[in-house]
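Subject: Predicted fold for HNH endonuclease domain-containing protein, 358 residues

User T.R. writes:
Posting the sequence so we have a shared reference for the thread.
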Amino acid sequence: MRDNDGDPLLLGQRVVAILETGLRTATYKLATLMALIDHSIENVPANPDDVLDIPIPALAHRVLEIYWLQVRPFEGQILSQKTGAPNATIPNAARRLRAEAQVGTSRVPIDVAISRVPQAYERVIDEISLCLAGEPLRRLQRFGGSAESDPFLYDDAFLQKPSSSAKRVRGYSIELKPGVAHGLARLAGLLKPALEIMWVDDVRRMNRFLHAEVPDVAGHLFGRERAALERVREPFKDAFGPHCFYCSTHLPTGNPIDHVLPWSLVGIDGLANLVLACARCNGDKSNALPAVPIIDQLLDRDPGVLEQIASEIGWPTQRDRVVAAAVGIYRMQPAGVPTWSGYKQTTRLDIAFPPSWE
Ligand SMILES: [Zn+2]
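User M.O. replies:
I've generated the structure tokens; pasting them so everyone works from the same file.
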């Protein structure tokens, strides 16, 4: 018997309910849930009823990756992510890693920091793992002010005795209950935007200087600024030609860089997920899921060429992640769902599993 009766809608309602009850004093619960969703998409089990084991350090990595962009100063100020505590543990750890890796305030993916300062990264993962095991994971499944946990996502009994040993926590994992990983991955397109809205509200509440007229908080927190990807434009034009990936039109200078797997869904900035696009295709595609032949074409690009660019500009390809996320996303879609297949064109999804992507 599955706890959520195999019903993704029920699962989604319960997830939203744990966030809507009670005042959130930190963004950690939101981060933990987002990390659970992200991990589920890239590791979705073949059988919908299967459990999914998530080592706590792997979850800590996902949480760190979310805060990685958020901790950059906004309008010259550090955003608080916890009521009355500008230096909360997790954002602070992310800021320290940025400083040690000397990446400044750039949007460079976290992989760059991992390769530059691997030991600092391991320390930060230990610290975040301890923090997650101590609070957000232990309390996530309590509704409102309830002292009782209602473990519908994972069994949290072993977390109820907090550990202060990073070494022990390194060995911990949580096991998502049957159907949960599948359900979270399937609901990602609905849940993630809802979590983002709650997150922006919380950050506004926790940072009084963010008045209504202050510009794009959501864009800052969730990395929607376009300019940040500009450094891949010229190398891509040299390698693949100055043409739109989707419609082959000749590109002017300053054309958009597009995330093929939507950024809003999987947040992968690696070269393997990026293409040059014309403004027309880029605007029309927006956050839509691309048609399967577009993914075929994306993954057909020579990995060696991408690796070459990666080493020249110091930006990872993340090709394995793109493949894993694509498999996860498309496995979740019901047959016949509309996908974007070009400017003002829609194709009903038709995909055979396993797909030929590798
Ligand atoms: Zn185009």
